[in-house]
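User: Quick one: structure for sequence A, then sequence B.

Assistant: Sequence A:
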Amino acid sequence: MSRTWRLGHLGGYFNAVSSAATLIAYAPWTYIKRKYGTRWTLVPSVLGVALYPALLSLARSPAAVLPVVALNGLVGSGINLAFFDALLDTCRRTSSRCMWPST
């Protein structure tokens, strides 16, 4: 059995860890968004996502990548929440009916 074949199955673990971290992090990010607003949700999220490539490059083994992937899932949910709220605020201000680019 080659090393490449064994490491190929770790992609499922990375996806599971990222998805679980994202689901867990939505509740705290929602609290931060309600208490401090979209801006203070987006700032730490962007800083966390900016660290992702640097931390990923420092990981020397697949097991060391799992916490980095979890961090990306944690802060990625903050970005998703902030961008979605900003989109809804923009649509409310521009018109009563939001026009999507695909329509």
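Sequence B:
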Amino acid sequence: MNDFFDAIRRFLLDYLPKQRCLSENTILSYKQALNLFVAYMRDEMGIGTTDLTFSRIDRDAILGFLAWLENARGMQCFYPQPAIDGTAVFPGFCRTD
């Protein structure tokens, strides 16, 4: 497992439930948003899970993901809060962990 997926595991299993005390449903929303991000990177950006590292994720990747949610996934003209939270809170967790 690479550092990126190890950080996701720690984020979902340790940080969110134990330090942030978030509910199982909220954690599930974060997990779904991160899974969608991984699918976007794989399917749209051509970056497979073995090649997905922090160095491959930049501002353009996040903005592209949010646009993909809106256009390809049929979301409304606003960005769904769990997707924003999942992609915004996770990098902050990784910087402090």
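The chain has one domain: 3-96. Helices lie at 3-19, 24-43, 59-71, 81-96.

User: Thanks, that's what I needed.
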